[in-house]
Design a protein that fits this description.
By secondary structure, the protein is mostly helical. The chain is about 40% helix and about 0% strand. The protein is built from three helices and no strands. The protein has helices at about 15-25, 35-40, 70-85.
Length: about 90
């Protein structure tokens, strides 16, 4: 294990600002892959620590149980539930 001290910290409050910082080369970031997939494919960004992925985070799907769900919402909930059960 190696620890590196960096000279400063970039602090932002929004996802787009965070992504802009890494796109400008201001440092490292842990972001959902779908946000940077194109840049990774083009080589504009480089993935590091690929052998050390972050732990999974819980996901909650919240909807009004007392209302009739639209068919689209029902299909999405069923899909998300099946994906979760498979560990994807």
């Amino acid at each position: 294990m190696r620890t590196v001290s960096l000279p400063t910290t970039l602090s932002v409050t929004g996802t787009e600002s965070y992504l802009a910082g890494i796109r400008l080369g201001l440092g490292l970031a842990q972001v959902p892959r779908f946000h940077v997939e194109d840049e990774l494919r083009r080589g504009a960004l480089v993935q590091i620590l690929a052998d050390h992925p972050p732990p999974s985070a819980p996901v909650s799907l919240i909807y009004p149980h007392s209302r009739q769900l639209s068919p689209r919402v029902r299909v999405f909930l069923d899909w998300a539930s099946a994906e979760s059960a498979q560990g994807n």
